[in-house]
């Protein structure tokens, strides 16, 4: 018996069956693979944090090289001695601070009564404590984010930037070594001790990056808006940590 | 006579050369321009498209007698979308850094005109085995162009192949760079992919005059 595939009732039943079948296949697959996907995201974050602290596989290459995903979890646990959640000047230890979603916190902070939770990671490098601060902002097309490693006096020890969709060859270059390495040693305060951030400055400002106290690094040509985004997110997000760092001195 | 009959092997060979989806039918250009800056994503993209087209053509062909013709385009879309999500999820779970690199373009396989084109033009009217061959053939034709473009763009744009520095180190000035060679930064940008595809089309048509339209 041939089915009359032109009948309306047949079309409706066909669509319903199709949706149910496809829906269950995809739902099953997604929940089956979720642990693996989540682990990958966690590893990536750990790699980024460690990268900013200078723990990476950069030696002998000019590219950005993370430590391998196999060892990142152990390395993260042994390097990051403490994780804090800061509210105001109060810091409380919380071993899952790295799971805080800054994007969500930022949205919640629009409510003036909400006390924003700020994650902070403490590790040790050459016997000195070193702190990693996650930051997030806007580039030209989409979100940009990063991790800034600073010492007790908030002098930058290393950074890592990433982006969701900046222009390849221009804004996307913020995740290249030649740009990120410039931040090392820059101070976030001006000479009088006021918070100033770090400006991604145009106009061939200090291209060899010899002056470490000028609060500026050289911009990437053709990536003005992405660079401004970096300046803005450093200023905005790191500033929130200043009260806490003042208590460390 | 080999594994395939003459008619069947034509299904594989035609899209590779005289009926190539990219250079002759000019379909699927968007992804060919976007992800071919390096060889590795080009190959992963080619394999993903091959999976989606092979399996998709088989599924559509199996269902060709029960698909209501009124909603056949929607059914085709659902099949592509399902397969693409499967590819995306598997890449996210097992090849995370690659899936980050390909980012939105895996999702955009859905809009790859070659796939819907083959579903509509071939799988709806042909048997399962022939549809499978047709899907693989067209995906191969697409993949070959992707790999050729990716090869030249990575070699001339970054001086590397699969990330290996085949021309020497551009920072340390070794190999070719020692005698003043410079990477062509333009090759990394999508417009150059269009020009490379154009050159392939030119070469192909000058070798086979029958392909030139009036």
TrEMBL record, chain A:
EC number from the UniProt entry: 7.2.1.1
Membrane topology: Single-pass membrane protein
TM ranges: 12-33
Every FMN-binding domain range: 139-241
Catalytic reaction(s) noted: a ubiquinone + n Na(+)(in) + NADH + H(+) = a ubiquinol + n Na(+)(out) + NAD(+)
Protein's UniProt keywords contain Transmembrane: yes
Cellular compartment(s): Cell membrane
Superkingdom of origin organism: Bacteria
Modified residues (FMN phosphoryl threonine): 224
Keywords, alphabetical: Cell inner membrane, Cell membrane, Flavoprotein, FMN, Ion transport, Membrane, NAD, Phosphoprotein, Sodium, Sodium transport, Translocase, Transmembrane, Transmembrane helix, Transport, Ubiquinone
Necessary cofactors: FMN
Pfam families listed in its UniProt record: FMN_bind
InterPro entries: FMN-bd, NqrC
Top-tier EC class: translocase
Chief place of localization: membrane
Subunit-structure text: Composed of six subunits; NqrA, NqrB, NqrC, NqrD, NqrE and NqrF.
Stated role: NQR complex catalyzes the reduction of ubiquinone-1 to ubiquinol by two successive reactions, coupled with the transport of Na(+) ions from the cytoplasm to the periplasm. NqrA to NqrE are probably involved in the second step, the conversion of ubisemiquinone to ubiquinol.
Family label: Belongs to the NqrC family.
PANTHER family in alphabetical order: NA(+)-TRANSLOCATING NADH-QUINONE REDUCTASE SUBUNIT C
NCBIfam families: nqrC, PRK05346.2-4
Name of the protein in question: Na(+)-translocating NADH-quinone reductase subunit C
Source organism phylogeny: Bacteria, Pseudomonadati, Bacteroidota, Flavobacteriia, Flavobacteriales
Gene: nqrC
TrEMBL record, chain B:
Domain of life according to the entry: Bacteria
Cell location: Cell membrane; Endomembrane system
Source species: Winogradskyella marina
Assembly and oligomerization: Composed of six subunits; NqrA, NqrB, NqrC, NqrD, NqrE and NqrF.
Matches recorded under Pfam families: Rnf-Nqr (PF02508)
UniProt catalytic activity: a ubiquinone + n Na(+)(in) + NADH + H(+) = a ubiquinol + n Na(+)(out) + NAD(+)
Gene (UniProt): nqrD
InterPro entries per record: NqrD, NqrDE/RnfAE
Described function: NQR complex catalyzes the reduction of ubiquinone-1 to ubiquinol by two successive reactions, coupled with the transport of Na(+) ions from the cytoplasm to the periplasm. NqrA to NqrE are probably involved in the second step, the conversion of ubisemiquinone to ubiquinol.
Topological category with respect to the lipid bilayer: Multi-pass membrane protein
Name assigned to this protein: Na(+)-translocating NADH-quinone reductase subunit D
Family: Belongs to the NqrDE/RnfAE family.
Transmembrane stretches, start-end: 43-62, 74-96, 102-119, 131-152, 185-203
NCBIfam families listed in its UniProt record: nqrD, PRK09292.1, PRK12405.1
Main location: membrane
